[in-house]
Specification:
The protein has 469 residues and is of the alpha+beta class. It folds into two domains: 272 residues, no CATH class; 161 residues, no CATH class. The chain is 50% helix and 14% strand. The protein is built from 18 helices and twelve strands. The strands form four sheets. Strands 7-8-9-10-12-11 form a six-stranded antiparallel beta sheet, sandwiched between helices. Strands 1-4 form a two-stranded antiparallel ribbon. It has a two-stranded antiparallel sheet with strand order 2-3. A hairpin with a 5-residue loop joins β11 and β12. α4 crosses α18 and α6 crosses α18.
């Protein structure tokens, strides 16, 4: 393609982009975001439909985990919320959505430069769409979590205001920045202390330091100590059914060998989705074993494997998570993905939204032993993983944590969308903040009803659930 044949890109001035944001107010007024009502849908039917293509033997684990608390239900119900938001008028101000931006889908991980970053860290549902859908999912998760901690109306209102205001102010900050400066923006340990250290106090800062130090130990060596043992001098996965099961325990010898060969082959092929230097790195590791691993809440039942490699010796392990990628729950309402491979959809969305992504993040499509072709994405299993314990947060800590999530979400949206237009839409007042708080409260009410419907269905025997593990 010659330069003259390349597709033209229309570059808008900042004034043009401000006008786009303000025009969106006519299409979708800021106060209208608070006027949500459930529109006759069956949440359990949505979950059951989502589970039809999954491993049926694992679905009772998913339902058991979701039934534990209203917040656990919320974590697993991204498809339900997509259906609820899909019928609403939206701003049309498009970004790359996480698609499941609840509190626990943010956390700490290592950058390639070995800094601990805080960012969005789950992209199974990522898809382009209106920025407010992610923000509504985040705000509602804060409300649900605060209720689970029995925080009062005033405390919850303050926390929601903090998060919404942080998103709005961060977006205004990004709107005034140069493009490369937005791209390089990140939230590391030093940035967290600089932004929020005075708010949380000395005790919380000490706790944060302990969490950060612990995260740096949650790496491939700790995974090896926890998940493997030596068998005849070779590292092999432990057996802890149903959460971690070596491939040879799931199938006959012939089937297990075929599945292991298929996954191993897909890993070899997935290297083509990596940069050349990272392919070179991976080629220095030798594949040794495979196991099925159950992870998360909403993704339970998708085909998820962990593949074990060794480098120079057994003290140099590498763990790759090989996770099935199906269509995003948002696609029924926002159109099909432009990527034919859903593994690539996840990877490209993650690279676009995150400040830094795993060096071994890639994708592949493979045909299973059942003859069905499925999409997968691959990444390292643990690389300085830090997760917040929402169940123990005080109002002050939850407020700051919500701000950290909101800032990270604004940065991801500014990278992938039009920060100037979004900031112009939001404005400098609190109209949008108040509307989102109203939405979050109404949605938390509905989530409690949906959770109870699942609990009742399990009690009646209509849905089978396993005890939480």
């Amino acid at each position: 393609m010659t330069p003259s044949e390349a597709p033209s890109v229309k570059y808008l001035t900042p004034d043009d982009r401000v006008a786009i944001g303000r025009e969106a107010r006519k299409r979708c007024g800021r106060s209208t975001h608070g006027g949500w009502e459930a529109a006759g849908r069956d949440p359990l039917a949505i979950l059951e439909a989502q589970g039809r293509g999954r491993e049926q033997s694992l679905l009772p684990i998913r339902y058991g985990r979701m039934a534990a608390t209203p917040f656990a239900f919320y974590r697993g119900a991204a498809a339900v919320m997509a259906a609820d938001l899909g019928g609403e008028t939206h701003t049309g101000l498009e970004v790359q959505l996480c698609g499941d931006a609840h509190l626990v889908n943010f956390g700490g991980f290592a950058s390639p430069e070995r800094d601990l970053l805080f960012d969005v860290n789950d992209f199974d549902e990522t898809h382009p769409g209106p920025f407010e859908w992610d923000l509504k999912r985040l705000l509602a998760s804060i409300e649900v979590a605060a209720r689970s901690r029995e925080m009062n109306d005033g405390e919850r209102s303050t926390i929601l205001g903090q998060a919404s205001r942080q998103y709005r102010q961060a977006m205004a900050e990004f709107a005034g920045m140069h493009n490369l400066d937005i791209w390089y923006a990140k939230l590391d340990s030093a940035g967290i202390v600089a932004r929020w250290g005075t708010e949380v106090g000395a005790a919380a800062l000490k706790s944060f330091s302990r969490v950060a130090a612990k995260a740096e130990t949650k790496d491939r060596l700790k995974a090896s100590a926890k998940l493997t043992h030596l068998v005849d001098g070779e590292l092999r996965f432990l057996s802890d059914p149903p959460l971690l099961v070596p491939v040879e325990e799931l199938f006959s010898d012939t089937e297990a060998s075929a599945i292991a060969d298929t996954v191993h082959g897909s890993i070899r092929s997935y290297r083509r989705s990596l940069q050349g230097d990272r392919r070179h790195l991976l080629e220095n590791y030798r594949y040794t074993h495979l196991a099925r691993k159950v992870v998360g809440v909403g993704s339970v039942g998708t085909r998820c494997w962990v593949a074990l490699f060794v480098g120079r010796d057994e003290q140099d392990p590498l763990f790759l998570q090989v996770k099935e990628a199906d269509s995003s729950v948002l696609e029924d309402f926002l159109g099909k993905s432009k990527f034919s491979n859903h593994g690539q959809r996840v990877v490209e969305g993650q690279r676009l939204m995150q400040a830094a992504s795993d060096v071994l993040l890639g994708w592949h499509r493979t045909e299973g032993a059942d003859g069905v072709s499925r999409d997968f994405y691959m990444r390292q299993l643990w690389d300085w993983k830090a997760s917040a314990d929402v169940d123990t947060m005080t109002p002050g800590i939850l407020g700051v944590y919500g701000e950290m999530c909101a800032w990270s979400l604004a940065r991801a949206h500014a990278r992938s969308g039009d920060a100037i237009a979004i900031s112009a839409y939001l404005g400098s007042g609190e109209n949008f903040d108040r509307a989102l708080a109203t939405f979050a409260a109404a949605y938390a009410d509905q989530n409690a009803l949906d959770h109870q419907a699942l609990v009742d269905a399990i009690a009646s025997g209509a849905i089978t659930a396993d005890p939480v593990r």
